[in-house]
Amino acid sequence: MSISIKSSLVTLSYIFCLFFIVSKAVQAEPKYQGVNTCSGTYPSYWQDPAAKFKDMWTGQKITNVPTNTWKKGVFQLSDNYPNKLIDDKANQPWRDKRFDALFLADTNQTTKKELAEEYSWLVLNYIHEGNINQANQMDFDVCNNPVRPWYHIPFQTYDAMSGREFTHGLTREAPVTFSVKTGSGLVNTTMWAVGIYNATAAYTLGEVWQKNGQAKIPTQSIAFHEGAVIGKPLFNTATVEQLPVLKNMPSWNANISAPSFCKCTAKIKGQQCNLIEESNQCPRSYKQWPNVKLLQFDIAIKDSRAQGTGWVYGTFVADGERKASVKEPWLRMSLLGLMWGNDTPPMGELAYNYPKNPRKNGFSEEVIIWDTVDTLNAASGTEISKQMGHLGCNYRLNGPADNANSSCLSCHGTASVPDENEVTPPSISQFSKTQTNECVTPDPGSKVAGTDRSGTPSKVINGVSFADMDSLYFANVPAATSFNMTVATPKGQVNVMGEGVPSYADSQQKQWISLDYSLQLSISLKQWMQWQKHKNSPQTVRVVDKELRRE
Description:
Blueprint: H1 3-28, H2 109-128, E1 150-151, E2 171-179, E3 186-193, E4 196-198, H3 199-208, E5 229-236, E6 251-252, H4 275-281, E7 292-302, E8 311-318, E9 333-339, H5 358-361, E10 366-368, H6 370-378, H7 408-412, E11 440-442, E12 449-452, E13 457-459, H8 466-473, E14 486-489, E15 492-495, H9 519-534
Antiparallel strand pairs: 1-4, 2-3, 3-5, 4-5, 5-7, 6-7, 7-8, 8-9, 9-10, 11-12, 12-13, 14-15
């Protein structure tokens, strides 16, 4: 036999073996077979009529259940969490090594912007797959996703004011006042949102939320795993005339309370409303008010290349006028920015002016798409801090729904297990009346008085300077690491939340137990703890802590 024939036979044999190996590999990774991930273990929404949950709503005015005239779908909670850790790397192209440069300090701003945009759109498309345009189901009805499973967090249902509504599982997020070109120039609106978690993230949720319907409250810091992805569409109650970017955007008929953000007044002066009072004063309706419209879409990705935090956060915003010709309504959005760190000010410096001139010089740990910022602001009124493109402290990333004094990672880095008093670190220092504010510009010649970015007069409290507070809230908190609330002052170490905080059952646990940037998990655990305390108490004394605020 000639050498050429032998060579040909060897080649053919190699190709056959390679084909056999590849075939076996393909067979070893079968296509995902869609399963229903909604088990009914936990309430799907506030006032869920299932018999096992009825005691939670006793005495309340019932307005959040489907009526005889409701002919559309009803939200179900996806809570059948995976029993083993799932790594979906094969379907996550943003994990490719070519995106490594995004996280390197010496990468130029033009390249960072290009990589940030591609990274973000890949994640958004991953979240969309199987969750939109499916036959016989509403968008983001994730129970039966045919591509990959998605899940929700339980127990965002106990609070009468913010609890999930029954049509799409939206929770009331925050009141947001926007500067507009119509009417008085300001409009009071409300954000409603629903967060979804891929299987990698849901595995961690399942370590807390058990299949027997009980919460296993973490006693040590938890960590989400590489490749965890969270998506969160946020809808707003404004009209298209008030916020023109909402034109041509997806809209949902949701069972919400008053669009201007309903508030409750307790019968007993000086006290908070109980759940019965809240249900009476802030009833829900899907008929009384217009549809809510998609304004913002947040993404969060566990990515170890983000060395300071372990997380990447991004925000898309409605761009319905400019992208009216885009066929898919869910793609009529533009990226506002992507961040993986807080660009922490050096010790003693302030966050309001660090880094210097980020629009010109850029950030080290985030990318802002200034064209999107300009589009949002051009569609807004003249009050800068209330324009849609206000961003966060010194133009760090924060969306239209978010607080101008913070940033995505700054806020989420506070996520902690509630202590025995159901206390957690304020997600933004301004939410506490006993702390120095963050992101403050000092008054000329003063170190103890100033104005925060939203225009609120601020002062130093308990000797904790503005720089001290910025050093806490704009620190890069490593994933699954306690959020630090202690600073060194001329008078010594000061716990800005007060001595003895946190107060956990284990008296040796002196630091906050981290929930690895998951504020939703922190909120849900707080509502669970409140239900455990209330279930043997009269309905008239059932009072829940104030919900998360973004204003």
